[in-house]
Write a structure and sequence with these properties.
Elements: H1 3-12, H2 23-31, E1 40-45, H3 50-63, E2 68-71, E3 83-85, E4 88-89, H4 92-103, H5 113-127, E5 132-136, E6 153-156, H6 164-167, H7 171-178, E7 188-190, H8 195-207, E8 212-214
Parallel strand pairs: 1-5, 1-6, 2-5, 6-7, 7-8
Antiparallel strand pairs: 2-3, 3-4
Helix pairs in contact: 1-4, 2-5, 4-5, 7-8
Length: about 220
């Protein structure tokens, strides 16, 4: 396929809609020999600022001399913006090659657009030997395709009302979905939050036997 044909193929996967759940991404990454297990990662969820936070974290890690992958969404101009290493976007040829490779693995199930693109990013990072990848959640967190990773640290930016048709009608319901990225004994760093949101996050952290580091309480930028 050409690049334009590849992009059309990827966008046509949107006909499968949005499917919350990890079954497809588990099947897909298993078929690709679990590329996400080859590098460390930082996982970023939230409503406001998660994209900019992801970019800042990636930049800081790069200044330490690390080879840093960055996966964000959506893109502004070009699909290639979604997948970067040390600030350099994946090439159009890279998108074509990885898409064709992954297509061969999905004959028995139908991933969504975001599931396939997540798998593409993880495989690209593995193939290029990144030291660490900063992975931005697509939507929510608990059942988002990116939640297959086990990061070194989770980050949750400010949570407010968004995607209520998928995540819930109250701040507590939305916070429950986004706090779903918190893993056992993996520390979580969070921005200032509404009291009801903080209550949900800290309850989840307690269930996962881990620590919450709250901006303004446990650390500051001053």
């Amino acid at each position: 396929m050409s690049y334009s044909e590849t992009i059309n193929y990827l966008y046509n996967l949107q006909k499968h809609g949005i499917k919350f759940g990890l079954d497809n991404i588990v099947k897909l990454t298993s078929a690709l020999e679990n590329p996400h297990e080859s590098f460390t990662s930082v996982h970023v969820a939230g409503t406001n600022g998660k994209g900019s936070t992801s970019a800042i974290v990636a930049s800081l890690l790069q200044t330490l001399g690390l080879k840093v992958g960055l996966f964000t969404s959506p893109h502004l101009v070009s699909f290639t913006e979604r997948i970067r290493i040390n600030g350099k976007e994946i090439t159009e040829d890279g998108v074509v090659d990885l898409t064709e490779e992954i297509r061969e693995k999905i004959s028995n199930f139908s991933p969504t657009f975001f599931e396939l693109v997540t798998a593409m990013a993880l495989l690209y990072f593995k193939r290029n030997g990144v030291d660490v990848a900063v992975i931005e959640v697509g939507m929510g967190g608990r059942l988002d395709a990116t939640n297959i990773i086990i990061p070194e640290v989770s980050v949750i930016t400010n949570i407010s009302y968004d995607h209520k048709e998928f995540l819930g009608n109250t701040l507590k319901e939305i916070a429950h979905e986004k706090a779903g990225i918190i893993k056992d004994r993996i520390p979580v760093v969070i921005s200032s939050q509404e009291p009801e949101v903080l209550e949900v996050i800290e309850a989840r952290a307690g269930e996962r036997n881990t620590f919450v580091y709250l901006y303004g309480r446990d650390f500051s930028s001053v």
